[in-house]
Amino acid sequence: HDLQEPLRKIRAFGDRLQTHNKDQLDETGRECIDRMQGAAARMQGLIDSLLSLSRVATGAHQFVAVDLGAIAREVVAEGRAIGETRGLEVVLAAPPEPVVVRGIPELLHEALANLVDNALKFSPDGGRIAVGLAPCGKNQVRLSVANQGPGLSPERKASVFRPFERQGGSAKESVGLGLAIVADICRAHSGCFGVDTPAGGGSVFWIELPRAPAP
User: What pLDDT, in 10s, does the model give residues 127-148?
Assistant: First the structure.
């Protein structure tokens, strides 16, 4: 939180320069402001991601019954709104009845949102992102997000859930913490996670969580 205050000032003064003084600057000066604001935005993203990791680590949340289907429908709707400008199709396959786990709703939403956000970043324009929710084993459920991106080498598959690792080694709109947050949220819910690379290309990121016991 202490990092946020100086960053807010950097962004505020940058906004003021862009609004009130941009016409007084030459092309190089305007480009410098744009770069500064872009760097500040990336720093804000990094701080937000670190705060998310911290919230998971503290374990100060209350576990309740959570319908993963409702979360999946909400996240997919958000993904469609983001992807429509690039012609991306975001689809959901989920059972109509509730799929209930015991967990922390806001963290489970963040985990799936990070997986969908990852797919949006690395899918080609006009591609398809398939989100799935289905039973897995006796008492597990699986959430999966399949994309048509470049896929992952075996080396990248082994490390992509680590902090500050980026899919494909790319810095594309990423600070490398989204998948690490997914991993920590899964661990906090006694679940597991992974990524598969189908023969036809792309990647399928998935998490598995224990179902809530019947009341």
Answer: 999 999 999 988 999 999 999 9
2: amino acid identity, one letter:
D
pTM: 0.75
Distances (CA, A) of 205 to 10, 17, 60, 78, 147: 36, 42, 27, 18, 9
Tokens at 140, concatenated: 């597990």
Q: Label residue 202 left, alpha or beta by phi (over 0 means left) and psi (-120 to 50 means alpha).
A: left
CB 46 within 8 A of CB 177: yes
Among 61, 3, 77, which residue's Cα sits nearest to residue 185?
Answer: 61
How far is Cα 121 from Cα 74, in angstroms, rounded to an integer?
19
What is the spatial distance between Cα 47 and Cα 40, in angstroms, rounded to a whole number?
10
Nearest to 166 by CA among 158, 175, 157: 175
- Convert the pLDDT of each residue in 92-122 to its tens digit: 999 999 999 998 888 899 899 999 999 999 8
23: which 2 tokens? 């016409």
47-52: list long-range contacts, CB under 8 Å, 24+ apart: 47/3, 47/4, 47/7, 49/175, 49/177, 49/178, 49/181, 50/177, 51/1, 52/110, 52/177, 52/181
